[in-house]
Specification:
Layout lengths: L3 H16 L5 H31 L17 H4 L4 H19 L12 H4 L11 H12 L6 H12 L15 H11 L7 E3 L6 H18 L3 H10 L1 E5 L2 H13 L6 E4 L14 E6 L14 H6 L5 H12 E12 L1 H4 L3 H13 L1 E8 L12 E7 L8 E6 L3 E3 L7 E6 L1 H9 L13 E5 H6 L22 H26 L1
Parallel strand pairs: 1-2, 1-4, 2-3, 4-5, 6-8
Antiparallel strand pairs: 5-7, 6-7, 8-11, 9-10
Helix pairs in contact: 1-6, 2-11, 4-6, 7-11, 8-9, 8-16
Length: 494
Amino acid sequence: MITGELKTKVDNIWNTMWSGGISNPLSVIEQLTYLLFIKRLDELHTLKESKAARTGKPIEGPIFAPDQDAIRWSRFRETAPEKMFATVRDEVFPFMKALGQSGEADDERGSTYAHHMRDALFMMPTPRVLANVVDQLDGIDMADSDTKGDLYEYMLGKIATAGQNGQFRTPRHIIKLMVDMVAPTPKDVICDPACGTAGFLIAAAEHLVEHHGETIYKDAAARRRFNEDTFHGYDFDSTMLRIGSMNMLLHGTENPDIRYRDSLAQADDDDAEKYSLILANPPFAGSLDYESTAKDLQRIAKTKKTELLFLALFLRLLQPGGRAAVIVPDGVLFGSTKAHRALRKILVEEQKLDAVISMPSGVFKPYAGVSTAILLFTKTNSGGTDHVWFYDMQADGYSLDDKRTPQPEKSDLGDILARWQNRKEEGERARTDQSFLVPKAEIAGNDYDLSINRYKELEYEAVEYDSPEVILGRMATLEKDIAKGRQELEELLA
């Protein structure tokens, strides 16, 4: 857990860059990411040097060549600001960009993050700003992997404005709820086709480490599978690819498969039915042209709506038996177009729709006030929906205004998870409760409407009022009292 002292240090670094002229929060994070990466490379090279000194053997897989000593973090941090600026701009950055083109896969040179460095831009405005930031970063102890991950998450939390194409960060506590509900196992192959900063993949990795640590680290093959074969993410924003890759790296996942792809435009047969678990909150940017959308998705649902196209994509990517926990705008649940109804019918009739969790509209503030829901479903290609579990989330532990003030006493998340894990008992609940089961036949009879308000029953309290005669008598008494008071006031004024 990040401490107040560390938060202050990060805030100071942020303010240094902000006052230095880098005003875009994503640009600030990206520049800090580059510096964290070169710092990490130097730390890894130092470990290799120490091992070589102990064994008396040459350095195994050196990151820096002997003539590249000047570009190591531990060297250039000691130089004057002007020299440091020139070294980082003219030598360090070209070195990092070249890593992504080296093709080496046996060390950090071949990592996913190094691959995405090819389009990196050096944006530090002045030598003074760079020297100040390097000095402050050097003063933060990042030996603990949890600290590094928490620091990066804290920095990402400073993105206070939505990006282009409907992008905004999913709150970590909502991600954790979704991951806990689907409970990943070491056998899962996990994908987020709109991964952004990789929040879902990181939460899945943390869940696996916490609940299956002995299995995923039992031998070299298991560790390699966890680090290289378990996590897959796509995005078409190169900045997000770099940030997401570094986020996973700092959280302890060395080389996940995070790559460039416009998920809705590119049809890749290699990824069809490849994944056993999908976790996602894709951007809902409105409509796309038919010409720019993958034809196989159009066959599932003839639509231009991105939220529906992403649902079709999830179905294509999942293996039979694979499961998904995804966030959708409320319109998906009750939209009346042919494509809306067709996709809901597919989920209910051809696949197994497990749950619909309605979330309050303030969950994504200050980014957006849109009403959303979590869908949980399993791909079967043969039906299987018996009952659908609905939950009406009223509070997520934070105020639902732009400030999002913590209110831990007002949270339904623990209750949601507890009821979900014991959902066999949910059939006894009345429709007036926060959660209940709805049979498939009833959903089909409502044109596959999945909005919770269609099925939730409101409980009314009987209120007894006095008869009109009693109320009128009371009013007459009040009028007499008012008239008497006015007469007394007039006499005093006279």
